[in-house]
Sequence to fold (358 residues):
Amino acid sequence: MTLVFDHLTLGQRVLFGTGRAAENLATEVQRLGARKVMVIASGSEAAMADAVCAGIEPALRWDEVVMHVPVEVAERARSAAAQHRIDLLVSVGGGSTTGLAKAVALTTGIPIVAVPTTYAGSEATNVWGLTESARKTTGVDDRVLPVTVIYDASLTLSLPTDLSVASGLNGMAHCIDSLWAPRADPINAALAAEGIRALSRGLPLVKAEPENFGGREQALYGAYLSAVAFASAGSGMHHKICHVLGGTFNLPHAQTHATVLPYVLAFNAPAAPEAETRAAAAFGAGNALDGLNGLRDTLDAPRALADYGFRKEDIPEVVRIALPAIPASNPRKVTAGNLSTVLAAATTGDDPKTLTDL
Ligand code: NAD
Fold:
């Protein structure tokens, strides 16, 4: 069989080492020749930022961080960066914090060094997101890709176990959606498969032994791979749905991804045999859905969108916004009818297997 594809690999330095973030950041700030560093970390991330910044002298600390980056929050951070003549942004925190740094970089071109503390993976993508009037807009721009990512599993120790699980499954969603996203190719599929393997081995260890670094390192490594695969392959059906649930209904990002994923997998898998086989092998399971569901049981993962305040009455609005955005290349044809059924099952936490024969 011939192999033809067009793949773009994004350029970024990755420094990985438990307990090494402060040292790695100091080295990077020096290497980049930065003189005026703006450190972005929310209030609950401040202690981590203090530790990570022990070897540098920030010119500005910024703690106004809001999930999905409201435009007005981005504008205030941009003005502060301009006022202080900032030449390097350092984000220490989850995807919301990385997202604010990206919003500043988008209009100023100031480089970012990202120090992630969840498994969201934003640090490894050139995708930005902003929210205005309850509508989330995303775009792709290489200016927002952090020049360097510093991973340190000790920074994820304080992440509560339930949030670690949900965030890790957000990474898993990047992997699985990458297998059928519009620019899916053999390279991002290989990264996604290794991401599934690492996350499915690491997350149960995080759950069983939250203080042990071994599982957290595997999960962080898997989260990075998941994001690289996602950045390359683009958003598939799963991400288009979650984007609306987060941006318009303000549902929590990681928990929403963790809840919706088995439903999209159950819906698409019968029409995507190659992706299904690959994911099953990476899970070490007979089929991909059993692999994911087995992992979710072990992790006691989020189960129903209703648990996060989503109501069945809102399904038509999600369908109205999400349906036109779902790629035409999705393995199974998506209609208003079957999308409503997928969302209804995810709302109440029904058995995802009911969707395979839709
Ligand atoms: P988050 O950044 O909102 O963090 C959730 C909560 O956990 C926050 O209160 C945060 O302060 C806290 N927290 C973070 N790390 C912690 C730690 N180690 N210990 C204790 N508390 C900690 O959530 P998230 O899921 O990481 O990120 C979600 C956001 O990231 C969304 O806006 C999403 O759209 C965006 N995102 C973007 C991309 C992209 O490629 N652009 C990819 C993934 C996610």
User: Anything to note?
Assistant: The chain has two domains: 13-156, 161-355. Residues 186-208 form the longest helix (23 residues). The chain has a mean pLDDT of 97.
